[in-house]
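Hi support team,

I submitted a single chain yesterday and got back a structure, but I'm not sure I'm reading the token output correctly. Could someone confirm the output below corresponds to the sequence I sent? I've pasted both exactly as they appear in my results page.

Thanks,
R.
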Amino acid sequence: MTDLSELRVAAAAERAAAARSAPMDRPRDRPEAPEVKFASSLRAKKVERDGQQWFEVEGYASVFERGYEMWDMFGPYTEVVSAGAADKTLAASPEVVFRLNHAGTPMAGTRNSRLELWADETGLGERAWLNPKRADVQLLIQAIEDDDIREQSFMFRITSGRWSPDYTEYRIDAVDLDRGDVGPVTYGANPHTTISARSGEFLASIPSLPLLAAREAYERLGQRLDVAASLRAAPPPAPAPTGPSVAWLQAQLLVERATTDL
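Hi R., thanks for writing in. Yes, this is the structure output for that exact sequence:
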């Protein structure tokens, strides 16, 4: 069975080959404003501020120097947010809002001074003061206290980044937080939301797919001419310097796992 580590090696080789013809300063199909999620403990307490009662929520929206898996059009790679990546944007006093799951009405913001952001050796920290009279705030605080929400996220734009020499790691050196948001998220799903990223989630879910879903996936893969052709082709006598294509490895891994489940 094809191991995911082989996908990483093959993806890096294809990425390097593509970069020779068209230099890449970031992953090819990266969204302009990706949402990156991190496991981060949230703390909530009621405090008095400016003569009013508020719920104070504090945590880290990002963790520096800690790799997490991402996928681009070539396959998986490791991404790291560098320490200091937020220094320049924080110095420019960006407008950022605090909200749940990157959606809905903002609960706080830097514009009204009810959201504070900072960067330290751990990552991008946040402290928000939320109106306890709001129903959505009450639900959020209850979810935090019940430990139903444990993840954090931030939305940003990459302004500077670089690939490692072997194209297995992408390092974000600087981000722009202006017009972005921070806050808790329900699930720590794959941070990259393109189809190529979801391929990674699909591969990981194959061993636990229900029988009917696995059978349907197997049949649909069999109808794809590119997958069928790659499986019929005999493997080369000796591996090429760049390794087998990612498409071939992905197809092999999908079919082998689906067949095992059947």
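A quick pointer for reading it: Confidence is low (pLDDT under 50) at residues 188-197. Let us know if anything else looks off.

Best,
Support desk
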